[in-house]
Amino acid sequence: MKRKALPSALTLVTAGMLLCPVGAGAQMPVIVGQPMPDFTLPAIQGGDVTLSSLKGKTVLLIFPRGLVGDNWCQICHYQYAELVELEKELGLREKHNLEILFVLPYGEEMVRDWVEVFPEQMEVIEGWKNPPDQENLSERRRRWMQLARSYFPKRFTYEAGSIPVPFPILVDAEREVSQRLGLFTTSWDQADVEQNIPTIFILDAEGVVQFKYHSQTTFDRPGYDYLFKVIDRLVTSD
Q1: Which residues are bridge partners to 99 per DSSP?
Q2: Which of 164, 198, 185, 172 is nearest to 88 (CA)?
Q3: 24 - beta bridge partners?
Q4: 164-186: per-residue pLDDT in tens?
Q5: Contact status, residue 144 vs residue 128, Cβ threshold 8 Å
Q6: Which domain, by its residues, includes 203?
Q7: Residue 143 counted as domain residue
Q8: Does 214 reside within a domain?
Q9: What do you get for the CA distance between the two ends of the chain, in Å?
Q10: Engineered SS bond to 73: which of 65, 110, 126, 229, CB 3.0-4.6 Å?
Q11: pTM of the model
């Protein structure tokens, strides 16, 4: 069935794409309206995931930032945790005939560490929201506390060894996918470290990109309320 075009407000592309000539190893960023190139990557939950095998489903494809200096990005962990909670409450994948994939540009050992540090990452965020001696905070630190409370209103706590990972977390150890799409970098936001520029794609049932977010600004990432409005439109336009 021919798919209806989405309104321009829902087919959003943010800045940051670097176009390179076609060739072996060339970066070829994908834009809205283009099919996502196929790939196969191992998941830490076991087995491989081939994107083309998901044809017929809507796909939410997320590339978290990963490392920030010597630490993992806490915001990326929070957003995974938030999505896990929404799946538990609303059954998002069944409701929307949806698959959700996360891709990290590291080897399996590092990606497993990304999962294992969830408890510590959530506590760091709680520390941002509820620092000690709040009456004597500097103005800058007080603004950060208020920002953290606004952006991270939920509290997630996990016991070591019991961290829920319902969505496939894919190991892009050779950066085959991340580099091809122009996402992988070693320097931005004052951090010289291997990482991906945070990027979100929504693919329709034919594997065509209907939404793309790609930005080096930490706090402009679209919320799940908006992303699922886009997904709702895709599902209902069939």
Answers
A1: 59
A2: 164
A3: none
A4: 899 999 999 999 999 999 999 99
A5: yes
A6: 9-18+26-115+165-236
A7: no
A8: yes
A9: 7
A10: 65
A11: 0.86
